[in-house]
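I am still getting used to backbone structure tokens and would like to learn alongside you. To get us started, please write out a protein record for me. Start from the sequence, derive the backbone structure tokens from it, and show both lines together. Once you have written the record down, we can walk along the chain together:
***
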Amino acid sequence: MSKRVNYALFAVVVLAALLLPLTSNDYLIQVATGIAMYAALASSWNLIGGLTGYPSFGNVAFFGLGAVLAAALSVNLHWPYIDAALAAVLGSGLFGLVLGLPLLRLRGHYFSIATLALAEATMAVVTNVNFLGGGQGFSLPLLGSGKIFYYLMLGIAVLAAAGTYLIINSHFGNILLAIKSDELAAQSVGVNTVLAKSTAFALSAVLGAMVGVVYALWQSYIDPPTVFDPGITVFMLVMTLMGGAGTVAGPVLGAVIIGVLTQLAMSFSKNASSLLLGLGIMAVVLFLPRGILGVHRPAKGGERRGARPLRG
């Protein structure tokens, strides 16, 4: 019965999301597109931070790299944008896999600092390579209406949530949860933890890059400070922790809550959204260490009730 209720609620939410553009309210569609975008990004972060227990502060590198590579191939080499987008997503995934092999040998705050440095280094390289736009960025042609980009972002968000569900209920998901619970114990029974973590990192990179290639076309102009903004990773992290790290719906719920509250705050003051984000981080750490969906979820593995669920 519980599963039927969950499936029914999921169907209602998806149906409402599909029918939203019928309102013909451009502002509402734009806000909903942004929420769908961050729901997908938060879900991508959840793969490495929530399921595997490695809190990354550099996932914006994949989002930015996907956007920049797609724009560079389209503008400089005149590739059809869909071909450029596919190449950018695959390239970002390979980038995540290769760099994940050495980075994921680190743990805890060492890993977090290393991923933050990765994002900054990636932006520095992009800024100094003319083919990748340098400091000027790229201008892309305006294609399609706001509704098209809403459906594209919504599709990626649904794909990310569905992928998380499949992973959680698979053998691979059990490996990731075992790594999060006790990595040394997982290694002792023959699990190749480095390969498993790197695969999760690569999947996270692929999802982030998919959002990036759509974002570049949606905005029609991108530059390094915009697509490599560290605040994007902070939003991913806060949204996931608020909704419930390691769950399917947690990142989506967090994105909806933070997205709606941010828009309400910005209606009063532009600085209010930053204040709201800071308060949100404090509230999560102090009152919801397991997230909204984790309040009634029994602790698993080595987690204590009330303990922070993310550990390296």
Observations:
- Residues 26-228 form one domain.
